[in-house]
Amino acid sequence: MFRFKINILLVLLISCGVFADSVANKEQRVDPALLKDDTAQAAKDPNEPVVYYDISDQLDYDLDDDSSSLAAFEEALDTQINGFWEYRAGYRLQNDAHEKDMSINQLRMQLDVFAVRDWGRFHFKGDVYGSLVDEALHYQSRELNIAFAMSDDIDVKLGRQVLTWGTGDLLFLNDLFPKNWRAFFTGMDQEYLKDPSDAVRFTIYNDLANVDIVYTPKFDHDTYPNGEYLSYWNPMVNPTGGAFAGQNHIMHSDKPNDWFQDDEIAYRVYKNINNYELAFYGYHGYWKSPGGQNMSGQVIFPDLNVFGASIRGKFANGIGNLETAYYDSANDRNGENPMINNSELRFLAGYDQEIGKDFNLGFQYYLEHMFNYEGYTDGVKGLNGMMGLNMPIQRKKDRHLLTCRITKYMYYHMLRLSYFTYYSPNEKDVYMMPNISLKANDQVEIQVGANIFFGENDYSFFGQFNNNTNIYASVRYSF
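Above: the chain sequence. Below: its structure as tokens.
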């Protein structure tokens, strides 16, 4: 326990030591990731519109220079190799009988290869990391794909890729691509909230509207808290109405897992009208996180259809957005099975404004409205009577959620102070994420932050993670 506290302390001392050097270096820097494809930009901020850069815009080069230098420049331009080394450590602030005191402790290396050829583009991004939490070595391909033009009006991207759309800031209505909530709650960089999909994406350009179609031949579910790294509230642990569980009660699943049978399809039709982006969405697949439970105690992923729409653009002195989605729980449309999620209506309204120099403030209101609520409550009562349980009626008909993001950049964007919080006024639970990020130079970035959970009820969405409150720190060297 003492050793892990020392790990975090060392990272904090390093950040203090490089701060003076970072203040002295005040050159404006260009993020090299912005010179690559749309995936790099989406990983930084999934809500920003994708900006495609014409590669010729970067060619400010004297043709009379040495030919070998020009050849080296062209070679580097055709194949870019980037990556980073990162050490990240985190520690729980509460005693958790079911998890280790470490929330995260890992050394990670990422390699990012991007190549432009006559036929299209190739992108590989892979991570290798060793973790002291599970004492294992891991590998993940985050990008392994090719992109090419099928015709003048159709682009194709084939292979493993990180996908995102929608207008929410860390709230996802029509974005039914996999998320990694385990990484998010333990203090990983927000890039890792988005898990990759093995899919093919078609983008069709038309004067009337553009269309994205994503086909995933085998279901890609969320990485959700299941007790291995994060404790959670399990209503089935005992007959008195549930208890906290973790490594003592790992959540097992029965998930759709057959290629080309348990598939998913998502589509988006979008158009920019007078600087307002309008979009319509559809999805046919499964609940991305567990949406029910079978009689064997395994969590399941029932069939799900989603239909939605959004608009985003200038409002007052900032940027506003509205988004809505109807979740059709196809396996329980009458809502009488308490073991399967009911159908829902989801709604989001957001606003973001720069209130000072390099100082942004954003708010969101989010609603989940459960249909056939009476069927759900009757089902819980019937299940309690049939199995001799005392499970509380945990879900409310409406879940209201407010978010606030505050971001301040200082010292020529080398220092970023940010704070993001979720608060549910009717469930009375909170999730707060303060974070400080310092770019000491072009290669070194230091982060310190926390994930803070608390709630009035142990079984509420954020209240169940109360014992997972943690602090973390990281040092990243990019190359």
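Residues 1-67 have pLDDT under 50 and may be disordered.
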